[in-house]
Amino acid sequence: MKIFLSNQGNLRNFKRFAESLDLSRSNKLEIKTHTKWVTVHPANLVLAAALAIQVGKKNAEIVGYVPETGRYLDRMGLYSLTKTSSPFVYHKKEEAGRFVPIKIIKTSKNQSRFITDVIPLLHLSEENATIVKYVIGELVRNVLEHSFAQNGAIVAAQYYKKTNRVSIGICDTGIGIWKSLQTYWHPKNDIAALKLALTPGITGTTRREGGTAENAGAGLFFIKSIAKITRNYFVIYSGNAEYTLLKHKKRIKGMPRLYADPDRDPHSDTSKAANFQGTLVAVDISLDETPEFNDLLASIGKVYDKAIRERKRARYRIPKFI
Amino acid sequence: MKKIFKIRKYAGDFAENKDIAKELRIEKIMPALSKHNEVVLDFDGVNGATQSFIHALISDPIRELQDVAFDNLFYKNTNDNIREIISIVYRYMQESFRNS
Q1: CA neighbor of A283 nearest in space, from A96, A79, A134, A122
Q2: A210 and B85 in contact by Cβ < 8 A?
Q3: Alpha-carbon distance A140 to A50, whole Å?
Q4: Residue B92 to residue A301, Cβ atoms within 8 A
Q5: Which of B19, B20, B95 lies at the smallest CB-CB distance from A308?
Q6: Which residues of A touch B (CB under 8 A)?
Q7: Domains in chain A, ordered, with CATH?
Q8: Engineered SS bond to A279: which of A40, A182, A238, A239, CB 3.0-4.6 Å?
Q9: pLDDT tens digit string along A181-236?
Q10: What is the phi/psi pair of residue A166, to 5°?
Q11: d(CA B49, CA B58)
Q12: In this structure, is the dihedral angle defined by the CA atoms of residues A98, A286, A266 and A143, taken in order, positive or negative?
């Protein structure tokens, strides 16, 4: 497998990144970077980390010349997952208030500890920390519950002070979305599976409206909606499909409108990404654009109710006019 | 009889662990409601909760016991976010079983 980390590693360009991956020869991983400047989003980082963990340290390496900006890969913990020694010598800055390096979460207890101990390192206000905890809590739980990933959830986050934005990436090398929805929903391909997973009320554990006692099929819809309301990107990648929620234009005033159908949101998608056995979800949250969290939840909740109502109505018997 | 469960004691200050929610539901909430006891879920010291946690905590009592749950489940010391999430779960659970 080969991953190229470019100088444009952000969610806007994630589709191109996913299409450029070479995931053949799944027992070996080579990571290469742009030779002048490397920029990675936590999404790029957790994907590389998840694959490195999957092939094992001795089969993963960072090859070629890595520019000075590549020391970020070392600081975030990528080198330590490969057999390549870091060429960088530098004074390690304090993590607090800046980033959460690559972490592996395998159990719900790990997850709770991560949320309690690690998220405060981002030094966010209580309201903003709640949003980040919410997003990570839901996404990691999805991995632990639905992915059957032996290596758990791989998580990384970065706070950008200048833009007051938090970027989060979560990845696993489990069964992927298509397979997790097969029992009840039978999506015809990976892209159909991604869109089903983003639809409110759709869970891989039942077809019943309202879900099971443990699952309502709301998690991904809530996270995508948080990204939309805060006018940011959201990415989901599994199998050969990738979906990017595009940034809601700033010139459009008021709270962005939410839709149950992910096809109605401004987005790009592809079925030509490299076939990734697992799932990656990434999101940017602009903390300046975030309304009161309870207002945000209320808006999301309304769309969720409406989706359930409409789906029930779609199943009503109709009169037979002859 | 009134049973009070302090969520912070079980789930900490951010309630996201669904395993804990499930355990609380099965071992404490459902048995108490089934005996028509009043159940108070006290969120004192809890700053936030995920929808998944709240769903795992109360969706089954609502679905299985309906009016018994509506009449006997009480929520105390909830902040605006937690209140909103509980309200969302109440709405969509009722939406899901209405006329079904």
Answers
A1: A134
A2: no
A3: 14
A4: yes
A5: B95
A6: 108-109, 111-112, 115-116, 126, 130, 133-134, 137-138, 141, 145, 201, 208-211, 213-216, 218-219, 222, 292-294, 297-298, 300-301, 304-305, 308-309, 312
A7: 96-314 (3.30.565.10)
A8: A238
A9: 999 999 999 999 999 999 998 888 988 877 888 888 889 999 999 999 888 999 99
A10: -115, 130
A11: 13
A12: positive
CB B91 to CB A301 under 8 A?
yes
Q: Report chain B residues touching chain A, CB-CB < 8 A.
A: 12-14, 16-20, 22, 25, 47-48, 50-53, 55-56, 59-60, 63, 80-81, 83-85, 87-89, 91-93, 95-97, 99-100
- For residues A81 and A50, give the distance between their C-alpha atoms in angstroms, rounded to a whole number: 9
Work out how many domains chain B is built from and give that number. Answer: 1
Look at strands A234-239 and A241-245 and give their pairing.
antiparallel
Give the separation between CA A319 and CA A300, rounded to whole angstroms.
Answer: 33
Q: What is the C-alpha to C-alpha distance for residues A124 and A122, in angstroms, rounded to an integer?
A: 6
| R_g of chain A, CA atoms, integer Å | 20
Q: Note the pLDDT of residue B96.
A: 80
For the stretch B58-85, pLDDT in tens is 999 999 999 999 999 999 999 999 999 9
Question: Quick one: pLDDT band at residue A252, thresholds 50, 70, 90?
Answer: confident
Host domain of residue B74? 2-97
Hey, which residues does B6 pair with through a beta bridge?
B42
